[in-house]
Amino acid sequence: MRNTLLLCVVGAINALVPDGSASQRMKPQKVATLEPPRVAALPKLQSLPRPGLAAVEAQLARLTRDPQELLEAVVGLPGPETSYDRDTLVDFWARRPEKVVKRVFDFLNAFRRTRKAWSDADGDRGSILRAELANLGPVAVKLGQTLSQRPDILPEDVCEALKGLQTQNLPFPDDEAFQVIAEDYNAPGPLAPGHPFTHGDANAKPLFAEFGHTSVAAASLGQVYKARTWDGRDIAVKVQRPDAMRRCLLDGAVIILALKALQGRYWNGDLLAIFDETAGGVIEELDFRREAINAKTFGESIAWLGYARVPETLPELTTRRALAMEWIEGRHLQGLEPEEAARMTYMAVEAVTAGLCLTGLVHADPHEGNIMLADNGDLVFLDFGLMSRVDADICEAFAAVWKSTSVSGAPDNSSLSHFSAMT
Fold first, then answer.
1. Which of 270, 303, 383, 394 is the most buried (most CB within 10 A)?
2. Residues 63, 78 contacting (CB under 8 angstroms)
3. Active-site residue numbers?
4. Consecutive H or E run containing 380
């Protein structure tokens, strides 16, 4: 039975492997040029010519047996820029069918357990679904975060349970995070005075003046620690989950197989093209250097609003797997009083709409966990792995619709009326 299943999966994967045609890369959309203010296209990281996957694997295999390094070659690493290519991704996993089969069974078993909870009148279906998605990893967590905002698809009690995935994900072991920090920041010794993690020369100057012993928040792709630099700045250090790239790319291959089976039979749209766009965003999100660029550019695009801000990043402490930015004291929506929550919501709607109608640069993942109200009253955006760009003509169309609806539909809302005057 196992051999038969392996052959079926191998055949399905091989059907997806390109026949030598050039791979179809996702191209970034053109950024709008309206005023005020217009946001130029996000700067590209300097890219290098990429050899064929087989050549990269052969070269790396001679140097190391580390499967993670082989996998990183799929998205252009080692190198200065990550990128997504469906053909290359499928080709990589087609050579490792046993991994795909095991992952398919992981999904099937999670589905069976969730379905059982759904039919059990006494079961907490929302909590069980949240736990299953959390255990499946980053791709499933992002799906759950999206579904938490869709009561038109799932019952409200389930959506409420899934909102926990926005701010309360399962953390990975602290020692694994500390190892990433030590490696990426080239720490000569301890992370901080008295810190329990040992690395390098115990007598060397610690990397930070203070560094948290455990994470303060865990997200789908990483978790955050509070630290203090030697010049007295409080910062947040975001560390990527060590297995995040492997799990995302493997799940991508499984999803491609499923979409290939569905397309043309149960769905007439181009499901693979839709997935390619999503997967391209996830691959970029796995590169924290790109997130630092996004944060800076997005912060500049909303600074003119006067009440919205973005934490400042520290370029000297930014790598593909670790990102440091200023620490801002604040609270998320669930921790606010009703009046504060309403005010933050108005500001968030206005800031997001400004991107759609004026700047052409939009935060593409503004769920409750990525927005907070600072203690000084500012609206603070977090997590800039996913950004969207809007063409100028679409911005103009959004602005026209917004102006006509906001003026007539919300005359007593001073915030919305103020924004309408600007459009």
1. 383
2. no
3. 365
4. strand 379-381
